[in-house]
């Protein structure tokens, strides 16, 4: 499945030519075909969760969710303190730019861009009788920050999950790798803002972070945002965990704290778990 | 083929890149003389620059070396500041630098392990070091400025380095991917400590064009150029490193 990159074409153009060109990608993975009307006739195996198309649409959903969250929060008078308004305007701008980029990448591939969901940040999934999973996230600043942190953490992890999924398109891979650290900077910032308000939380996922309490039905978001960040098993070769104690703590200046080992590596998220968490919001 | 069968002993290989070029030129001259029917004289021994390290290896191993050198830079700064915090550091500053030091020492030692799985090889000369003399780490402003500079560099270069790996084994580059976002977190944290609200600011994130909202990146060669004066008198040549896409 050969991908012809929108960005490969753009890279050949002068740097000042920023206008995206249409229809440069003929196919964006198997799922692009599955998106055609004939999709129903294709075998079920055609719709996997790991094509470039699935990766980009899942990232687009996440970015759209973040964009909607910040847009609505900024529109609520008094929710975000004046001193932080510029910060969240920057976050909103970045998410908007990411949405634009991912949308153009899909369009350039001739792929279907999914319809924009009507997001509901209460967790009621637009059914008033459903229990509220995320109370006050658009009226209380601390509740807002806690959800913002989880969505940014999820973003860092989801870009990691899909970083090597667009293997046939180096320019798109590069773009995913450049978007990934921007999400990480956002997360570090929101975490810092929460710490400034007295929450026990580091700028990176840490065992010492105070848990964000959610109803059981919302637990999947916590799992998607930070579940597994306590992982201390890393692999250089399959099936053989790296024995860090073999080379840490035995040399000068390598007496590190136990909590640092999982902090030093951000983890990816299972894409199905990420999807289940995203589904809470529409 | 394993990534780790190609460990050069940095000290033992005397034909550094520049030396190789000089030798090549002498050989070409010799060939020319022979072709012209002249006798050749024994060429004078080439004086080897004792501070010219053998070139960074090609392929994935060279990328690990590059990441290792950058981790040495970051870890050396963080270690120094954690050991001797500026007097005007806050409690938060101190706690952050302890964490940064821990993370970066783990990264440095893991990368070293990639290059030397058994921990038996001297990868660098005994007196090779990242020099702190040009940095002012005794004031909060100076320490944060230095730390931010190198955290920004690491954040900016990992997205360029990651696609250059070629091994079929994705695990090592996945570990670097996991480190990549930690570098970005370090950069944002230091930026905000130094000047609140400068996380992901316009000087590190593209603001216009198709790639707006994406991190501004650097190439390994750009980063090595920044590192060079800090590793002096040793000279690192990177002509064999995979070139950015």
Largest interface: A-B, 67 and 60 residues
CATH fold field value of the largest domain in chain B? Ferritin
Helix proportion of chain A? 40-55%
So what's the overall shape of chain A? globular
Question: How can the largest sheet of chain A be summarized?
Answer: 2 strands, antiparallel
CATH homologous superfamily designation of the largest domain in chain B: Ferritin, core subunit, four-helix bundle
Strand content of chain A: under 5%
Distance between the termini of chain A: 32 Å
- The CATH architecture name of the largest domain in chain B reads Up-down Bundle
The overall number of domains of chain A is 1
Describe the structure.
Chain A is mainly α. Chain A has one domain: Up-down Bundle (Ferritin). Chain A has 9 helices and 2 strands; from the N terminus they run αααααααββαα. Chain A has helices at 6-12, 30-34, 52-75, 82-108, 141-162, 170-196, 219-226, 260-263, 271-278, and strands at residues 235-237, 240-241. In chain A, strands 1-2 form a two-stranded antiparallel sheet. The two termini of chain A are 32 Å apart. The model of chain A is unreliable at 1-49 (pLDDT under 50). Chain B is mainly alpha-helical. Chain B has 2 domains: 12-49; 59-231, Up-down Bundle (Ferritin). Chain B is built from 6 helices and no strands. The longest helix of chain B has 25 residues, at 59-83. Chain B is globular, with a radius of gyration of 21 Å. Classes of the chains: A mainly alpha (282), B mainly alpha (245). At the A-B interface, α4, α6, β1 and α8 of A face α3, α4 and α5 of B.
Brief write-up:
The complex is a heterodimer of chains A (282) and B (245). Helices cover 47% and strands 2% of the residues of chain A. Chain A has 282 residues and is mainly alpha-helical.
């Amino acid at each position: 499945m050969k991908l012809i990159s929108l960005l490969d074409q753009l890279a050949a153009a002068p740097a000042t030519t920023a206008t995206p060109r249409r229809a440069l990608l003929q196919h964006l993975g198997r799922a692009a075909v599955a998106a055609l009307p004939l999709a129903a006739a294709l075998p079920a195996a055609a719709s996997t969760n790991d094509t470039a198309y699935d990766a980009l649409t899942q990232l687009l959903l996440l970015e759209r969710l973040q964009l909607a969250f910040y847009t609505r929060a900024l529109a609520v008078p008094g929710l975000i303190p004046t001193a932080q308004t510029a910060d969240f305007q920057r976050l909103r701008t970045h998410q908007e730019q990411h949405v634009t980029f991912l949308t153009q990448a899909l369009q350039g591939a001739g792929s279907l861009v999914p319809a924009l969901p009507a997001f509901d940040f209460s967790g009621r999934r637009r059914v008033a009788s459903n229990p509220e999973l995320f109370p006050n996230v658009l009226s209380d600043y601390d509740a807002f920050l806690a959800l913002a942190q989880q969505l940014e953490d999820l973003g860092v992890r989801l870009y990691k999950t899909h970083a090597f999924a667009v293997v046939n398109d180096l320019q798109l891979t590069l773009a995913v790798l450049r978007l990934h650290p921007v999400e990480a900077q956002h997360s570090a910032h929101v975490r810092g803002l929460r710490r400034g308000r007295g929450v026990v939380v580091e700028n990176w996922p840490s065992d010492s972070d105070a848990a964000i309490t959610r109803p059981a039905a919302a637990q999947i978001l916590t799992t998607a945002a930070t579940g597994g960040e306590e992982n201390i098993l890393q692999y250089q070769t399959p099936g053989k965990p790296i024995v860090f104690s073999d080379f840490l703590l035995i040399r000068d200046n390598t007496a590190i704290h136990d909590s640092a080992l999982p902090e030093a590596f951000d983890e990816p998220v299972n894409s199905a778990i990420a999807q289940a968490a995203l589904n809470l919001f529409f | 083929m394993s990534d780790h069968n190609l460990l050069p002993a940095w000290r033992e290989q005397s034909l550094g890149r520049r030396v190789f070029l000089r030798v090549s030129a002498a050989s070409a001259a010799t060939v020319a003389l022979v072709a012209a029917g002249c006798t050749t004289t024994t060429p004078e021994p080439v004086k080897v620059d004792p501070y010219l390290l053998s070139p960074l290896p090609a392929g994935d191993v060279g990328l690990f070396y590059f990441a290792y050198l950058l981790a040495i830079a970051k870890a050396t700064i963080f270690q120094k500041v954690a050991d001797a915090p500026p007097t005007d550091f806050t409690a938060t500053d101190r706690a952050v630098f302890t964490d940064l030091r821990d993370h970066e020492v783990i990264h440095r030692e893991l990368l070293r392990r990639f290059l030397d799985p058994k921990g038996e090889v001297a990868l660098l000369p005994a007196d090779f070091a990242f020099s702190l003399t040009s940095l002012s780490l005794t004031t909060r402003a100076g320490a944060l400025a230095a730390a931010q500079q190198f955290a920004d560099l690491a954040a900016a270069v990992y997205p360029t380095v990651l696609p250059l790996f070629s091994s079929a084994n994705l695990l090592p580059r996945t570990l670097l991917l996991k480190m990549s976002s930690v570098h970005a977190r370090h950069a944002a944290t230091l930026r905000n400590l130094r000047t609140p609200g400068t996380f992901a600011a316009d000087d590190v994130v593209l603001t216009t064009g198709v790639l707006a909202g994406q991190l501004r990146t650097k190439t390994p060669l750009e980063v090595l150029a920044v590192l060079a004066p800090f590793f002096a008198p040793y000279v690192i040549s990177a002509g064999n490193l995979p070139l950015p896409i």
